[in-house]
Amino acid sequence: MQVFVFIKCFLSVSLRGTTLSLVSLPFNPIKLGCLIVWVYICLYFVQYVQFSPLVPKHRRAIASVATLFLGPILLFILLIADVVRTAYRGGHDVLSVFKERLQNMGVSIRSVSLFSSKEDKSIRLLDSSGRSIKEIYGHVKGQRQDSHILDLTEQIIANALEERASDILIDPKDELVSTVRFRTDGILRTADELDPVTCQAVINSIKAVSSMDISERRRPQDGAFVAKTADGTVSFRVASAGVLNGEKLSVRVLNQNAGMFTLENIGLTEKQRMIIENAVSKPNGMLLMCGPTGSGKTTTLYAMLNSIDLFTRNVITVEDPIEYVLPNASQIEVNPKADITFAKSLRSVLRQDPDVICVGEIRDEETAGIALRASQTGHLVLATVHSSSNAAALVRLLDLGVTPLLLSSGLDILSSQRLLRRLCSNCKRPAELTQSQIYDFRRKGINYRNIYQAGKCDRCHETGYRGRIAIFDILVLTDELKADVADSKLSVTQLKKDGDKKGKSNLHKQGLRVVVSGMTSLEELKRVVG
Are 150 and 203 a contacting pair, CB within 8 Å? Predict the structure, then answer.
């Protein structure tokens, strides 16, 4: 009550010698302010209704008009209905789905907020020393004629972040046109086309901020830079190469959300999660993640590290590069130019009393041997290797020169994984199954009524998918299997052949579980697993 008295006294101001009280004003400023805020909120909710899957397209015009008057009331009703429907179809917890919706809403509000300043939406590209791209070019005041190139470069990076791209590819299509492509959810999409002169200028600006030589266009180069945005700092890794018709640039967006994943939300089944949790709770042993490039192995490693008590266990990681900073963990970044390799880093790590060692990737015999011996001497080792299946990983390690006895005694668990794109919740529709597919599902006792297929809408850029989910094939090396490996009773050729076939079968089984839950489509499962 005292606050309102103070506001009324404050509004009783003297204008040019004339005292005007709150009563003499032709309007109430407090009510006017509330009305303006209500109008802005209603305008945002109109946009939300346009993309809500609960509102039929032919009803969205009427819903928009109703939203202008009802505002948050209608939004709350749609939000609750959407959360209940999503939780029921996907078999998730209602509270977790509601929390996810609120987080997505917060991101949307920040992106369309009418109150945010121009600086909040800006992006600044910085080199390793902290200089911005405009400072490097001497464009601090933006008065140079070619300052639009720097603005275009920043806009390309900003658009890639907005669309959740994992890679940005800039390469010449022919002598007249160069393309800018984004890899989102594992699929490349053309984002823009530039003329060769403008494209080369953009490439030079990225190379300059990445501390690369802009005069060298034939020899491959590597670099890195960071971007400061309203939401935080994002790191990028850059690689260039001379190609036909010009120069190609590949920009990798390092996953800043990797540290937010846990074993509960990466896609593991309850049984698989129990196996992994039991393995990472042990004082020693080795857990090896397998899969092709871009299958999410590093993210799964971070999820495992997040399940470890970093206060009571000394955790040291060797990565190339460091994608996410883990508090209370020692992280080492590989740098071949400085002669810091995986093998040399692992040797030094063993002298630092580690409890848990995380190896970003096993690439050679020396690294594999050190990691396996470390698991034998009282350390828990988490590592990744590029292979198509669990059995192929065994073949890969044997091919690197690891002895069968060392492999059998040091390795405990193998886990292969793939990433499936999630169906866009805004445009997915019931799948049109053939009679043979329906017959197969009925024969196997599978409920096919909740299978969906991709649609097209603006939210997913006409792809029908938004986001990804992982599927896993976990192999626990039993004493019997270890004995066969140690005695070299397993044929390398037959092991790889049978392992690929069995691994694909297991991944297909896990993927089909995701399809039946309505999170992805049969077409996506076939594309990824086969």
Answer: no
Same domain, residue pair 321 and 393: yes
Backbone angles phi, psi at 18, to 5 degrees: -105, 125
Q: Is the pTM of this model over 0.85?
A: no
Do 314 and 201 belong to one domain?
no
Domain membership of residue 45 as a residue range: 28-112
pLDDT over 70 (residue 76): no
pLDDT band at 6 (very low <50, low <70, confident <90, very high): very low
Q: Does residue 410 contact residue 520 with C-beta atoms inside 8 Å? A: no
Are 136 and 163 contained in the same domain? yes
pLDDT value at position 12? 47
Please report whether residue 2 resides in a domain: no
Tokens (6 digits) for 163: 């669309």
Q: Is the pLDDT of residue 425 over 70?
A: yes
> Distances from the Cα of 328 to the Cαs of 264, 306, 309, 473, in angstroms?
22, 11, 9, 31
CA 164, 168, 172, 177 dihedral sign is positive
Q: For the chain, what percent of residues have pLDDT higher than 70?
A: 75
- Do 95 and 236 sit in the same domain of this protein? no
In a domain, 306, yes or no: yes
Cα–Cα distance for residue pair 504/497, rounded to 1 Å:
11
- Between CA 243 and CA 12 the distance in angstroms is 73
Q: Domain count for the chain, please give it.
A: 3
**What is the CB neighbour count within 10 angstroms for residue 237?**
18
Pair (140, 208) in one structural domain = yes
Higher pLDDT, 96 or 328: 328
Is the Cβ–Cβ distance between 207 and 249 less than 8 Å? Answer: yes
Same domain, 53 and 144: no
First to last CA, the chain: 69
The answer to whether residue 518 is domain-embedded is no
Q: Are residues 272 and 388 in the same domain?
A: yes
Distance from C-alpha of 245 to C-alpha of 516, rounded to nearest angstrom = 47
pLDDT at residue number 120: 41
- CA 272 to CA 475: how far, in whole Å? 10
Strands 232-243 and 221-229 come out as antiparallel
Distance between CA 381 and CA 288 in Å, rounded? Answer: 8
Any idea what the CATH number is for the domain that residue 302 is in? 3.40.50.300
